[in-house]
Amino acid sequence: MSNPSRQTVAWALGLPALLLLVVFFFYPLLRIAGLSVSFPQMSLADYATVFNPVNRAITVRTFSIAGSITLITLLLAYPMAAFLNHAQGMAKKVAMLCVVIPFLTSFLVRSYAWVVLLGDEGAINSALLWLGLIEDPLELLYNRTGMTVGMVHIMLPLMALPIYASMRGIDPMQWKATQALGGGVLRSFFTVYLPQTFPGIRSGCTLVFILSLGFYITPAMLGSSRDLMLGNLIANNVETSTTYGLSAAIAFVLLVGTVLVFALLRRREPQPEPRPLARFFTRTLGLGRLAVALSGRGWARGSGRAGGGGRFKPAWLLNAYGVLICLYLVLPSVIVVIASFNGQESLAFPPQEWSLRWYEFLLSDELWAEAGWLSLKVAVASTVLTMVLGTAVAYAIARLPGTRSGRVMYGMALAPMVVPSVVTALGAFAVLSDMGLFGTMTGVVIMHTCVSIPLVVVLMVAAFSSFDERLEMAAQSLGASRWRTFGRVVMPLVAASLLSALLMSFLHSFDEVVLTSFIAGTRMMTVPLKMYENIRNQVDPAIAALSSLLILIPFIVLAIQSLQRRRGPGDQAGALPGV
């Protein structure tokens, strides 16, 4: 097949997804830019308001909070990644579960869990009162402390997994060689080991910082009004104002700041070689190890080259730290499950009266049933659309390695990952309102698809790139058409990665709340939206019961993955390259 026809086929496959992103992602960003300057009048009055002393302080606070969250998460995640790299056998599998399960759990549930833990009648204050260490409850909630604890908890897996991926690629013999040459522990670490983990550190810091900039749900739930961030300011302005120029100006400032930070963090990243283009982007976004963890492949590799035996002499200290971080990651979910059996009207821990009343309430309440059915329909519809479009563009990208067309496609497909969700939400709000799709299921499904496509693309490009093209050529030389070859040869061999992408897309859509809160209107109430509204009004015990049910989803996902692996030896495409 000649290069022109190859590019033509690739563009034909990728064009539907790219057109969707152009209309519903890139155009909304331009719409924000236009609104911020009151196009076509071209006024900068809203920017003058953005940079007044009050809003300037909020901007500085947003970036400083994002920076502090990134630094704290890095300091906690680096030794945790070393623990994952050092652990063997069952300990490694359990530790990986402790990292992956919270990541797959709804971040709304995890934020609510900290409301249960940090409240005046929460688990921490109850334990301290019972031990006699305090006389009055500590103010741990609705302040900077509570917000930081909750945000770090959500971001920790995103930092730990990319660093762990870098550590696994380091030959343990290098550490022994430096010791044999007279290098001390600290000198060997700083001159040999640490520099080789910089790619993972850079990937983790990029993800955490960018996501922290766009946070507004967790700060609203756990922080105070003194910790107002740009995301909260945009949301509050949209709720209380009929003119959106100021919100657009704030969003555009946040977008520009995010792009500048992203460019700064990535400027030293080496240029990808022609063949491992998928590997480069997988490492850049830090999702390669997550994909392996989701498929369970990383858990079975407790020994071998990446085992790290002999790297860290005081292993007991590293093991103790790993256990503490695992408790930090899973304990909130455990506390929520226990609190869900509370039989009282108010939420307290430990429950003074044990009952299933809140589970019975959820099953009998029509409003929750409607919200659950709507969330399921939206998630299924967006997942189907995402898998079709995302898989097609991923296959096109993988078949154009090292070309300008491939890089353009990849950049466009992954762009929603680097834009704060609140900025995407504001742009979608403006565009869907113009198109008459605001508050409709069609509009919500389309936008969920746009923000889910990058997840599918990252996983499937890596799978397609590791697939041997000679198998396709052999099938076509025997008379199979291009479509028959794709369906009968390619797809079965990337089934594991396809299933991972499908589950990730479904979970992302079912859990989405920031984007949905802007575009769903009052006529649509999904489960995350209803949860958020109830939490804002009161600490509803029914939310604990619902959170317990949602915590089961990651276990169901991993069980499906396990069953899929047992059906066969697994596909080579599912083993992502370079991780």
> What do we call the CATH homologous superfamily?
MetI-like
**Secondary-structure element order, as H and E?**
HHHHHHHHHHHHHHHHHHHHHHHHHHH
- Which structural class best describes the helix and strand composition? mainly alpha
Largest sheet: none
User: How many domains, in number, for the residues?
Assistant: 1
**What would the principal axes of the Cα set say about the shape?**
globular
Beta percentage is under 5%
Q: What fold name stands as the CATH topology? A: MetI-like fold
How many DSSP H or I helices?
Answer: 27
* Helical content class: over 70%
CATH arch. level architecture: Orthogonal Bundle
How many DSSP-defined strands? 0
Q: What's the alpha carbon Rg, rounded to whole Å?
A: 24 Å
Please give the alpha-carbon distance between the first and last residues: 31 Å
Low-confidence stretches: 270-311, 568-579
Provide mean pLDDT, rounded: 81
Give the SSE map.
Elements: H1 3-36, H2 45-50, H3 53-86, H4 89-104, H5 107-118, H6 123-130, H7 144-168, H8 172-180, H9 185-196, H10 198-213, H11 217-222, H12 230-240, H13 245-266, H14 277-285, H15 288-295, H16 315-339, H17 357-364, H18 366-398, H19 404-414, H20 421-435, H21 441-465, H22 469-477, H23 482-493, H24 495-511, H25 514-519, H26 527-537, H27 541-566
